[in-house]
Amino acid sequence: MVDVPAAARSAELAPRPVRRVPPFAWPNDQVRISSGVDYFSVHTDDYWVVYFQGACALAHLAKDFGGLEPFLAVLHDYAAAHWLGVSTNADFMTTIETAAAAANLDFDPQRFFDRWRISRPNG
Fold it and tell me: For 116, which of 11, 55, 57, 80 could close a Cys bridge (C-beta 3.0–4.6 Å)?
């Protein structure tokens, strides 16, 4: 076992300052979570939007659907319906709209899609 000096141990346990993260800003007015390969092949520095904002959008949906389990059920049904097939943004958006209506959620799908910049092709 390595003998760590007491001062080093206390420094490890000392509260760290809170790091302030600047508010999120979209890199430009054109980028969307639903932007296609044609966009991201030209704007290679914007790739993170899909991963970071996409993950946040899914977490937001899980919260709106009442938690992870109900939302995972929606995703499971969606994946099963499109198994070994083609899936589009429009398919996903329709699934969310239908599931939200069926669950009688206080949820405005269009507001959600606008907020997270998710759109149907040519929309």
Answer: 57
What is the distance between the alpha carbons of residues 123 and 59, in angstroms, rounded to a whole number?
23
Task: Give one DSSP letter per residue of 57-101, joined into a string.
Answer: HHHHHHHHTTSHHHHHHHHHHHHHHTTTS---HHHHHHHHHHHHH
Task: Look at the pTM and tell me if it is higher than 0.85.
Answer: no
Going by C-beta distance under 8 Å and a sequence separation of 6 or more, which residues neighbour residue 57? Answer: 33, 112, 116, 118
Judge contact between 109 and 100, C-beta under 8 A.
yes
Domain limits, the chain: 29-115
Taking the C-alpha atoms of residue 112 and residue 109, their distance in angstroms, rounded to an integer, is 5
Do 116 and 57 meet the contact criterion of CB atoms below 8 Å apart?
A: yes
